[in-house]
Write a structure and sequence with these properties.
This protein is 29% helix and 25% strand. With 216 residues, the chain is α+β, with helices and mostly antiparallel strands. The protein folds into 2 domains: 144 residues, D-amino Acid Aminotransferase, Chain A, domain 1 (2-Layer Sandwich), CATH 3.30.470; 53 residues, no CATH class.
Length: 216
Amino acid sequence: MVRRARSDLFTAASIHLRHLGDETYVISEDYSFKTETYYRIVSLEVEGKTPVPSSRDTLEAYVVPVCLARAEQAGIPVLPWEISDRQVPLPAILYGVHYFADPSEYSVVRDTETAARVVRFITNAGKYPFCYQPIDGETEIFPVTAIFGKTAGAPDGVGDLCAGIYRVFRLPLVNCIFAQTGDRFALSALTPVRYSSLSREERGILTRVLEEECHG
């Protein structure tokens, strides 16, 4: 049975702290650089505490090339990627990598006209480079929400990948963007999660964490 989630736990942009041993778990919708959550994590580090995630984890998780390099090093299958300022082999997934880039705003492009329009937007008319990931024409892209590495209703095999991703980046709440080609899955990016997008089962998982204890 799925427990009914308390609505007051999921106020937009709310930050929850849970302590377990010497670690302080920071649960939030968004861990992006210069958000309130990021500064809360930095403050905990300055105080000599051990926040989960760390400021390093948050900085690296949402920069797609850095995220994929770190995940691959840990043995997690990832999509191949390149940095460019103009070339885009099609089809491909495109991500901005400049200061204000949000990995949630990725684009799957399959024709040159769409690719040119997206590249112009994510590079601010050529001022910044971008990241592209070549994909197969049959590749499907989909997000999976991971809560402390746990998932609700994820395809077989993806749950284990999300658990591995959590061990690497320690993000309590994150969207894992996956690419599926046949029976193979690969990580494309990590992105923020909105409480409002959580399913009833996902809210139940998070509610148990917030109301009882934080499991590392």
